[in-house]
């Protein structure tokens, strides 16, 4: 069956896997492909770091989609733009709006077209008109991101823009907020407050909320909490640049039956009762990033959580990492990410999490590595192991220790510089049946020697399917290409640099 005979829904899903560059090629195939591809290209048009010509073309096209009163509201500004009738109603295809990027594209067009009288007012008029057109025509708008920068002067549209048309924002599923704390102008404060109130009052299906703010001591604290309380969130990320006073439980008791993923970034839990997390019955993924104040975890009783994934990343846990693992984790855990691991934590993992198949660990020093490695290597369910360290730490003893104890792992990632001697020891002594393997080298190391020993490893084990070298500015030399060909003859593919981190995260 040719692709043109496939149902539209099937072809749409296939084309969804293509990037914009390849989607543009599909436009030229035929009319059938064009009609399906255009909505995919326009689902997220407001992106960063594009050329002036692309910015101007994007906004000019949207201006050409305006009708009636919207066009009249921009006269005489629109007289300087030549706009011919569009083939499609492009505003109806937009699924995601990044407000800050949208504003920058409009500014670029107006600056490029000349006319500097009241630039802020002109930009705002254009944005209001285009917003109204998108909200009026699009029934599939699902994602909204607002990011206030120090130089940003563009206000959000009036509240009525989002409520005068159906469905408006009612189908919004994802909301991301950055730096609204930077707003100090009274009129903009009022406008933004009204916008946030609309979100909690009119929306009813937001399941992803990312909140990046300085603290909860801001003018919009109540609005943030109302969004958390009223929306059926499945995924929530909160980053606090300056923790200050945090609400008792962030309103998360209202999300006990919906929330599946929770990420808390840069929060001080000293005055924060973590026990409320035990009430999140559906929680599957919990992440603490760069947090502190966990000392009271030693006094908490075990939770009834059934987490599948847990991440404790560069947090100041002191000696309480083991208690934290015991408090939040259980036999249901499948994926675990830790930094600065100590033996007590490793023993807790072995005791509490016997079924994990993915482990990512970062060592801040070589202390404890000799006692930790044997413990994690005893996890019979472990299939993916990602090991890293802070810069400058000699990890050669750890590599040799892994060679002596590793048995069950199939995917292995050395995310630190591996010296040749310890690598040779590993290839000669490792008993694990590795299928995918990535190592990291500094620029002074010759990759050819490592590849030759990989070849020897494969002759013994005949298990490797893929191998990769992570090296800054790395490109294959002729002598390395010859060894790569030998590896390919043995069934080993070379992993591209852009796939390495993806495979092990």
Notes on the protein architecture:
This is F-box domain-containing protein. Pfam families: F-box-like. It is a single chain. The chain is α/β, with parallel strands linked by helices. 38% of the residues lie in helices and 15% in strands. The chain has 18 helices and 15 strands. Helix 4 crosses helix 6, helix 6 packs across helix 7 and helix 16 packs parallel to helix 17. It is globular, with a radius of gyration of 27 Å. It starts with 7 loop residues before the first helix and ends with a helix. The mean pLDDT is 86.
**Estimated radius of gyration:** 27 Å
Low-confidence stretches: none
CATH class call of the domain at 1-41:
Mainly Alpha
Instruction: Quote the CATH topology of the domain at 1-41.
Output: Monooxygenase
> Tally of extended strands?
15
Question: The biggest beta sheet, please?
Answer: 15 strands, parallel
Adjacency order of strands in the biggest sheet: 1-2-3-4-5-6-7-8-9-10-11-12-13-14-15
The CATH architecture name of the domain at 1-41 reads: Up-down Bundle
Distance between the termini: 37 Å
**Mean pLDDT across all residues, rounded?**
86
Assembly context of the chains: single chain
Shape by Cα distribution? globular
Helical segment tally? 18
Strand content: 15-25%
Overall helicity: 25-40%
Alpha-beta classification: alpha/beta
InterPro entries: F-box-like_dom_sf, F-box_dom, LRR_dom_sf
Pfam families: F-box-like
Protein name: F-box domain-containing protein
